[in-house]
Amino acid sequence: MNFPSKLIENAVEELAKLPGVGRKTALRLALHLLKEETEETFSLAEALVKMRTDVKHCKTCHNISDTEICDICSNPLRDKSVLCVVSDIRDVIAIENTSQYKGLYHVLGGVISPIEGIGPSDLHIDSLLERLPASEVREILLAISPTMEGDTTGFYLTRKLRDFDLRITTIARGVPVGGELEYTDEITLGRSIVERTAYGKV
Amino acid sequence: MNFPSKLIENAVEELAKLPGVGRKTALRLALHLLKEETEETFSLAEALVKMRTDVKHCKTCHNISDTEICDICSNPLRDKSVLCVVSDIRDVIAIENTSQYKGLYHVLGGVISPIEGIGPSDLHIDSLLERLPASEVREILLAISPTMEGDTTGFYLTRKLRDFDLRITTIARGVPVGGELEYTDEITLGRSIVERTAYGKV
């Protein structure tokens, strides 16, 4: 692509490094910023730099936070007997948005994936095992995506957690709310029958 | 959406102002930047700010440029007898990428659109009429998208250009290269027959 300006070319190249942004989209974003007030670009750039420089990771659960210990870990109203283990920060946000969970979290920072060269030592598993003895945790809720890598990680964790006196649970598999039986895959539909619950329970 | 950090929330809100970027995409971009080196975010922010502050518009053709007069207008090798009128800077980039056009440009900065409140005075039409008398231009090539607004703009321009001794042309309408006759709409296919050219001409 030929650009009429080196400055635009630089901006497009930087934007195109973002995931899911190709050069055409990057050009559209750059031209949009050129049309808007200068102030818009300044506040975008400032917000990104400020975030990258100042965001911390919670020392206890590895969630992102503005403070050393995150708002969830330091909240006295949270149920300290349940600990939800997730792979990513986005999972914490997704679960928090349901308003159905009041316990604590532990963010692994990924899943075990031999293909990508990610082993247990690359994840925050040691710090999970370290925080358990001094904690009030009685239940570990594994909320890891049901993929090959996710299931491997779950299996590894249950073995590591065997020595602790804990109830280990996982999120229910079943037909999504609003989903059609007809279009649900066999494994999911099968599990939704095996793990059937009393009608009208929720 | 609940965010675990005010800094991330700010960054997401700023990113979500970009066209085609929703809050979920914005969060994905923000978390991507958090995973990458700090340097990445810095160079993105710097490129955007530098572009927004320093990019100029060519005084002659209104194309974006790093200088007062753009590289195309100041290039002695360009054919100064043809002037291509386009609505947007992106059209200049698209035409330049074909390597089939060696003339000059004039960027209108939009098309006439009564619904969006854009009239002829909001476009760079006056400056087009002003640059013509002192120029060597013999042909005006209208390369405006064949929409309702584009055709209105073309019609308006041809009336304004009547008093000049100019050949007025427009880009050919026809079946796209690689396109299937069967799936081409009737108007396009009809025009491709009316405006048929000698076989093997290009």
Automatic annotation (TrEMBL), chains A, B:
Toprim domain sequence ranges: 81-176
GO function term, MF aspect, one: zinc ion binding
InterPro entries per the UniProt record, alphabetical: DNA_Rcmb_RecR (IPR000093), Hlx-hairpin-Hlx_DNA-bd_motif (IPR003583), Rcmb_RecR (IPR023627), Rcmb_RecR_Znf (IPR015967), TOPRIM_dom (IPR006171), TOPRIM_RecR (IPR034137)
Zinc finger intervals, C4-type: 58-73
Gene3D superfamilies, A to Z: 3.30.60.80, 3.40.1360.10, 6.10.250.240, RecR Domain 1 (1.10.8.420)
Keywords assigned: DNA damage, DNA recombination, DNA repair, Metal-binding, Zinc, Zinc-finger
Alphabetized PROSITE patterns for the sequence: RECR, TOPRIM
Entry keyword annotation includes Transferase: no
Domain of life where this protein originates: Bacteria
GO biological process, one term: DNA repair
Keyword check for rRNA processing: no
Role summary: May play a role in DNA repair. It seems to be involved in an RecBC-independent recombinational process of DNA repair. It may act with RecF and RecO.
Family note: Belongs to the RecR family.
Protein name as catalogued: Recombination protein RecR
Source organism of the structure: Pontibacter actiniarum
